[in-house]
Design a protein that fits this description.
heterodimer; A: mainly alpha; B: mainly alpha; 5 helices
């Protein structure tokens, strides 16, 4: 394994914004990658899983995204790494959909209408988690699963993956107001559904 | 009668802002005056403060879901190895 280049490690993370248009050196690109890209890998994986519905597809999507990010990093100004990476992820995802499903591909396709798969990612509940919590969790997950995919994706990205409104808008290629209204309607529906289905009536 | 209508209008006004108030998202902040008016209303309106409590509970449940959904460490490890390879390749 390679050691990180030590030279220049004291520079602030904002240094890229001050470079000239000339291509920057390999060491700077590597440093920028460590500083801006690596801290976001976990979020990228989660978001990619939400979009694709599978962890193995999300691994491929994130790998392709990271390669593109590395190639483009000398044009990145260092301002909003997550938003920048989410945009690359979005384009990469749309390209792969066009490649795999030419029948679905069309310009300006709304990513938020993609239907993510659910339920595959449940991990074993921890010992301290109470039975009530688990029942509630199941109720929430089935309420969310029953939402229209356009609403569900926005809800998952913001409330589960903790993206900001602006980051979700960027990722889905939607106006901020659309994201906010879908989020609000999704939450209202989940809230109503949780009220309508008392836990005691749940099937085992 | 008039005060009932005023309360209903304020409930309607509040319902349109309550989620933005709870989220405090940097992309869509409420004005300080809106926050004051909303907090005044929540302090006195049972219906709206119950709705706020439900949204808070939902937010907690969704955040807990996030913890259950952590990516497989093996995937994260493979991604990091691929990153190292990407950076090393560029050195050559």
């Amino acid at each position: 394994m390679r050691r990180r280049p030590g030279k220049g490690a004291r520079q602030s993370p904002g240094f890229l914004g001050m470079t000239s248009a000339a291509a920057i050196g390999t060491a700077e690109r590597q440093r920028a990658f460590h500083a801006y890209v690596e801290p976001e890998i976990d979020v990228l994986l989660r978001v990619a899983q939400t979009l694709t519905g599978s962890w193995s597809d999300s691994e491929d999507l994130v790998q392709d995204t990271l390669i593109r990010a590395y190639r483009a990093i000398d044009r990145f100004d260092g301002a909003h790494p997550r938003a920048w990476l989410l945009t690359i992820l979005r384009h990469t995802h749309l390209n792969s959909i066009r490649r795999q499903r030419p029948d679905l591909a069309r310009e300006g396709m709304d990513l938020a209408t993609q239907r993510p798969a659910f339920g595959a990612a449940r991990t074993a509940a921890s010992a301290e988690e109470t039975v009530t919590d688990r029942l509630l969790d199941d109720d929430v997950e089935s309420a969310v699963a029953s939402l229209d995919p356009r609403f569900r994706t926005v809800l998952l990205l913001i409330d589960v993956e903790q993206l900001t409104y602006a980051e979700a808008a960027e990722l889905l290629g939607l106006p901020l107001g659309t994201v906010m209204s879908r989020l609000s309607r999704a939450r209202d529906r989940v809230r109503t559904q949780l009220r309508a289905q008392p836990r005691l009536r749940r099937q085992p | 009668m008039i005060s009932t209508v005023t309360t209903m209008l304020t409930c309607h006004w509040s319902a349109r802002r309550i989620q933005r108030y709870l989220d405090a998202d940097p992309s869509a902040p409420l004005e300080p005056a809106e926050i004051r008016r909303l907090e005044d209303h929540l302090a006195t309106c049972v219906k709206c403060s119950a709705a706020a409590e439900e949204f808070r509970g939902l937010a907690r449940m969704m955040a807990r879901w996030s913890q259950r959904r952590a990516p497989d460490p093996a995937i994260a490890a493979r991604i990091m190895m691929a990153c190292e390879a990407l950076l090393t390749e560029d050195d050559a």
